[in-house]
Amino acid sequence: MSARLEDYFSPRDRGALKKRGITSVGELFRFFPRRFLVPGEKTPLGDLPLGETAIIQAEVISVETRRMRQRRGTITDVIVHDGQRSMKIAFFNQGWLDAQLLPGLVVVFAGKVEEYRGQLTLNSPVWLNRDEHDTKWTPEELNSPFPVYPRVKGIAQTRLWKAIKVLLDVADPAEFVDPLPQSVRAKYDLPDLRTALNDMHRPTSTAATERANLRWKWEEALALQTELVARRSAYGQLVAAPLLTVGERSRRFDDDLPFSLTSSQVRVGKEIAADLAKTTAMHRLLHGDVGSGKTVVALRAMLMAVDSGAQAAMLAPTEVLASQHFASIEKLLGEQMALSPLLSGDDQVRVALLTGSMPARERKQLALDLATGQIDIVVGTHALLSESTMFDNLGLIVVDEQHRFGVEQREALRGKGGLTVPHTLVMSATPIPRTVAMTVFADLDVSTLAEMPAGIKDITTHAVSLADHPHWMDRILQLIDRAAAAGKGTFVVFPRIEPSEIDDPESGEPTGQMRQGIEEYLESLENSPQLASRRFGLLHGRMPTAEKDRVMHAFSTGEIDILVSTTVIEVGVDVPRAVMMVIAEADRFGIAQLHQLRGRVGRDGSPAMCFLLTEFSEADESFERLRTVAATLDGFALAEYDLDIRGEGDVLGSSQWGGSSLRHLSVLRDTEILAQAKAEAEPIIAADQFLEDSPELRELIQRVLPADAAHFIEAD
Ligand code: ADP
Ligand code: MG
């Protein structure tokens, strides 16, 4: 017998398998059942439990495929009989079943029992016909968990399952070489690879599949932690120029600061200074809640570089963010910012902004100034990464929202340090749950700003269902009016610029009804009697920059009472007189985003209010999220909650690990395995940094982590 996919699947089948990521026998083995049906006895057709999973064995009486009248596609009706009763089972778009479910065959069907037109039926069940050679199912088989595979187009479950089982018997021993070290398996009682694969595809008990699942988690945990430990160890060997931690510019900056640093900022500043003084490159993550004062911390680190005669670069993912950072730095430096490279005093700092949209001539001049050391600090976008950007002496890189940059991009910047490697500080705009910091970012040292400068802010948040309480809007409008009368400003955030058509939630078809655009929403507010005497402004991303600046300015000086805007105000915007925030259709925003938006009010410490409006009813699940945001101002708690409800694929999807590479492991729940795996990874890397003696482990890392993340250890 042979063990290649070609011997079991036609080219067309292999095309379908490839769509599911299966191109080899090894990958087919790792195509695990979506779930297992746990049978008791087979259920007679007369006793089907509605809403539950049942396994039946019955004879096919007739099979017939026809086109559907309403929709595109076909429907195959199979009528079966178990000796006492008959039942109709419908399959959609599987016309080929005509040739498979031949009348007279005795077939086992497993699926969820549903009611259709008053009759009980199984909803798209999986099915198996009795093996040609077996005369009947053995009692063990009928009482073992029954694997249900994700659907592969054109390949029936039976055939897929059978092929996997045969291949498990005949595959090359190389397919079963175990990437988990024997010592680890022994210590944590994990089944070896062959056993675990058998437990997935021919399970004998639920306990066996659970034990196998633990092993798959371990594979992912060990791959992740080994890569992280290897990275950390590689970083630890990169030679960097040590940077002074006190000098003229740092001293003047600290002396001139209009506020005193929080104790968190002081502590993190010391952590960074200690790293910078070393001859190995810093790799540190800085995170903290919205408004915790990360920019000051980053700027102080950059000034240390400048005091040492080195340059610092701050990389931001968008032009807007780069401009905002530049503006914050400008504001924080005040008179300490040099007017030009030519006019700078000893303790002054020359700062520049570099973006892709800069005129070519200016950009050229800036490149020259950077290369000749006439600029101390540059804030920029991807333009910083281009080959034409060269530094005289780059000592420190600050990467904002580092998850938006790939490893290669960060490496490109790191390569600009010349003979030594620049120190690196990466920043996250939002707090990172502890579990994620421990795992996803375990290759970095982590600094947390745990404290808020102004103390706990006084923002009261209310989640408001306009469906349940339409008249509450009157009250909110009165509050806005009252704030305006007291000289305070209100942000009204709206989720879209243009009107958009509402789709039917069931069919996805357009309904012809429209949702308001931001201008109509503004108009409806302007026309409300409560706000008749108030002045409104409009702000969104498609307005010309000059116009945006004008509106923002008018709002901060109080010429405008109510600013209706899109999320352009999400980051950076600092208007101390704003004390009210009303977010329309709040259910459309993410939790972190709502929290970030709310951080825009009460900036001067005065009591503020935030209203999260929704058309959903209070009983709706969408309302629960809003209720949670309303219940706490703790960004860390919200980050944990977000990770929990959104699922990790989405959260980690925006991290350095890319897509949903972790299929089995939960960084939120499997913290114990992660900690154990880390302890196992450390001695492995200490003994063999590049895993030269563990090719299987190297391959495991390649398989588990996306290509650009599995970086330090590359399979050959
Ligand atoms: P974030 O961590 O969200 O990036 P910022 O760095 O933008 O926060 O800081 C938010 C605001 O708080 C800014 O206006 C900043 O100048 C101010 N700030 C930072 N540190 C302090 C402090 N120790 N005391 C008072 N205000 C501070
Ligand atoms: Mg910031």
Main attributes of the structure:
OB fold (Dihydrolipoamide Acetyltransferase, E2P), binds adenosine-5'-diphosphate, 3 domains, DNA-binding, 23 helices, Rossmann fold, binds magnesium ion, disordered C terminus, six-stranded parallel beta sheet, 716 residues, globular, alpha/beta
Break the fold down into its secondary structure elements and pairings:
Blueprint: H1 11-19, H2 25-29, E1 35-37, E2 53-67, E3 74-81, E4 86-92, E5 106-116, E6 119-129, H3 139-143, E7 146-148, H4 157-170, H5 182-188, H6 193-201, H7 206-235, H8 248-256, H9 263-276, E8 283-288, H10 294-307, E9 311-315, H11 319-333, E10 351-354, H12 360-371, E11 377-380, E12 394-400, H13 407-414, E13 423-427, H14 434-439, E14 445-449, E15 459-465, H15 472-485, E16 489-493, E17 500-503, E18 510-515, H16 518-526, E19 536-539, H17 545-557, E20 562-565, E21 578-583, H18 591-598, E22 608-614, H19 621-631, H20 635-646, H21 648-653, H22 671-687, H23 695-704
Parallel strand pairs: 8-13, 8-14, 9-11, 9-12, 10-11, 12-13, 15-22, 16-20, 16-21, 19-20, 21-22
Antiparallel strand pairs: 1-7, 2-3, 2-5, 3-4, 5-6, 17-18
The structure holds adenosine-5'-diphosphate (ADP) and magnesium ion.
How would you describe this protein?
The protein is of the alpha/beta class. The protein folds into 3 domains: 39-143, OB fold (Dihydrolipoamide Acetyltransferase, E2P), CATH 2.40.50.140; 212-455 and 647-716, P-loop containing nucleotide triphosphate hydrolases (Rossmann fold); 459-632, Rossmann fold, CATH 3.40.50.300. 36% of the residues lie in helices and 19% in strands. The protein has 23 helices and 22 strands. The strands form 5 sheets. A 7-stranded parallel sheet has the order 10-11-9-12-13-8-14, sandwiched between helices. Strands 15-22-21-16-20-19 form a 6-stranded parallel sheet, sandwiched between helices. It has a 5-stranded antiparallel sheet with strand order 4-3-2-5-6, with no helix packed on it. It is globular, with a radius of gyration of 31 Å. Bound molecules: adenosine-5'-diphosphate (ADP) and magnesium ion (MG). The site of adenosine-5'-diphosphate (ADP) has 14 residues, from helix 10. GO terms for molecular function: helicase activity. This is Probable DNA 3'-5' helicase RecG. It holds the Pfam family DEAD.
